[in-house]
Structures are given as structure tokens and as C-alpha cells.
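Interim report, section 4.2 (structural modelling).
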Amino acid sequence: MTGTELLLDYLSRYFPVFVFVVIALLFGVVTLVISHFVQPKYPEAEKLSAYECGSEPFSDARMPFPVRYYIFAMLFVIFDIEVIFLYPWAVVFGKIGFIGLVEMLVFIALFLVAYVYAWRKGALEWD
Amino acid sequence: MALAFFFYFSGVIVLTSVLVVALRNPIYSAISLLIMFFHVAGLYVTLHAEFLAAVQIIVYAGAILVLYLFVVMLLNVKREERYHAQFPLAALLGVTILTEVLMLAILRGFSSEPLPTLGGAGQADQATGNTETIGEVLYSTYLFPFEVASLILLVAMIGAIVLAKKDIGLASRNQ
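Predicted structure of the assembly:
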């Protein structure tokens, strides 16, 4: 087989992924288009104003968020990267055996230290 | 056909990268960055780097972009006008780099020969899976860097908490 045929054969295995992406896109687009045509439209000033739990909106919605949200995002990124290391480990676990288990236990133990630190410092608390 | 995939992915990457810096609403910039991340992942798939593609989507599209959006929300950037004055400088740099790339391409010639890989790693990828190869090497040869990575992540986490908690402490003192 030539290089192009090899690549096409390889990419054809990603066809389910492609179908999945197309369905995901269509779901969003079709829902919006159908609701645009089907919805009843009786606009009035009160309906078109921003809804804020029944109270009058008193400022722009785009205001600075507290920095507290950011720490959750950062912790999420760090644990996300830990998950990345778990995927190849799970794939080759049968081959690397017991040593692999010990390696991953050391890796996770270090993360447990980080987790306990975050917990004790109150980084997971809102206040 | 294979070239069509490359041109689709790289074309969308170039277009959305330009949009990231050209759009004035930072949220729109972040969304076009998200589209760019997905197409970079697609490019990785055509390069047989499935693991990198998965990392691209999980870490970049999933986590890094959240950080970018949070920065936009924290700093309350509504419309970015400041950097548009730097357009002439950016154009000059861009044209210089484009000329360089074109000259390299013309001097080397457009050949369809695959680039040399390190120690025939390309063939090994075909035989087993890309993720398997990474796993086998990472948990045997590169065991020490792997554990060091864990330590670096621990330090990063403690640093993040120390920096952010200082701010929280200040906020509660002011109340």
C-alpha cells in the first residue's frame, strides 16, 4: 500500500469520531434553527429586558469575577494533567506489571500530598 | 486526499489563529482559540499522534481554555483596543517570517518524502499503538522524569494555592 492509502485506511478508523462531531454540531444548529421558526414571538419591552431572578438588573453582567473561581480552575488543570498520565499507564498496565503499579502509587501519593495540602489550607472551601 | 485533510486542518488553524488576535471581543477570541485547538488535534491525528491529539483536547481545549476564559472574566476585559496600534510591527514580523518559510520551502523544494524520524520511531508507531508506545517508554526508560513531573505538579499546585489564598486572606481582612 502507498502512503496515501495507509493514511486513508488509518483515517477511516476515525469515521465514527467524525460522525459523532457532525451529530454534535447538527444537534446544536438544528435545535436553534427549529426553535427560531417554531417559537411564538410576541415581543414587548418587559420580556426583552434581562431577567435577574425577578429583581431589576442594576449593572452590566460583565463584571470582574472574584479570584476565588480561578483557584478551582487551576486545581482542575493540575488534576487534568494527572489524568493524562493515567491513560498510557492504563493502556500498558498488562506489560509493565507490578513495577508499574508501584510507580503509579508513588505518583498518586505525591498528588495525595497536594490534595491534602489544598484541603487543609482551605483552598477547596469557598470562604 | 491526504493533502486535503492537511489543508483543511491547517487552513482552519491559520484562520482561527488570525481571528484570535483580530477579534475585539475577548470571549470570541477564546472561542476561536477553542476551534483552533480542536483542529490542531485533528492535525495530530493525521500525523499518527493520537495520544497527543487526546492531550490536546483534554488539557488545552478542556482546561487551559477555561483558564483563559477565567482571566477574561477576572480582568473584566470587554473590548480589546490597546493592541491594535501594534499592527504595523506585527505585520512587519509576520511578513519577515512568511518570507523565511517560503524561502526555506523553495530552497528545499516541495517533496512528498517523509521527514526522517528518530530511530525509526514511525515504524514502531504503526506496529503497536501510539499510546502504548508512549506508555511503555514513559514507565520504563523515562521513569524518573515521570515522577519528577508529579513533583513539579505538586509544587505548581502549592504555588497556586499560596498565591490565591493570599488574596482571599486580604479580602476577608478588609471585610
